[in-house]
Design a protein that fits this description.
The chain has strands spanning about 1-5, 10, 15-25, 30-40, 45-50, 60, 70-75, 80-85, 90-100, 105, 110-115. By secondary structure, the chain is mostly beta strands.
C-alpha cells in the first residue's frame, strides 16, 4: 500500500488547512488510518486516528487537537484531516499512516506552518 499526503502549507494563527491522504494498492487490507505529526526536535505524536471503519468508525484525538481537528475516511480508505483554529504550536510535518493486520504504511509527510 502506498500512502500519499497533500494539502500542507502556511497559514496564520486561527486559520484552517485541510490535509488529504490517498491510499493506493491493496486498500481492502487497511483496518485503520491515522494522522501523526513531528515538530523539529520532537518525537512523532498521534494527532487523530480512526479504526473499525467497517463498523462505522471509532475515532481518537490527541487532547491538544480536540475540538479543532476532524478526521474522516471514505470507503476507498482516503482520509481527510480538517484542521481549524490553527496555532503556531501546530507547526510540524504531518504524516498519514495506514494500518493492516500485519503492516503499517507511512506517507512522506506534508509540512504545515502556522505563523503568529
Amino acid at each position: 500500500v502506498q500512502v500519499v499526503e497533500s494539502g500542507g502549507g502556511s497559514v496564520q494563527a486561527g486559520g484552517s488547512l485541510r490535509l488529504s491522504c490517498t491510499c493506493i494498492g491493496s486498500i481492502f487490507t487497511i483496518t485503520a488510518v491515522g494522522w501523526y505529526r513531528q515538530a523539529p526536535g520532537k518525537q512523532r505524536e498521534m494527532v487523530a486516528h480512526i479504526s473499525n471503519m467497517s463498523l462505522g468508525g471509532s475515532t481518537k484525538y490527541a487532547d491538544f487537537v480536540k475540538g479543532r481537528f476532524t478526521i474522516s475516511v471514505d470507503d476507498a480508505k482516503n482520509s481527510v484531516l480538517q484542521m481549524n483554529s490553527l496555532k503556531p504550536e501546530d507547526t510540524a510535518v504531518y504524516y498519514c499512516n495506514a494500518e493492516s493486520a500485519v503492516n503499517e504504511y507511512w506517507g512522506q509527510g506534508t509540512l504545515v506552518t502556522v505563523s503568529s
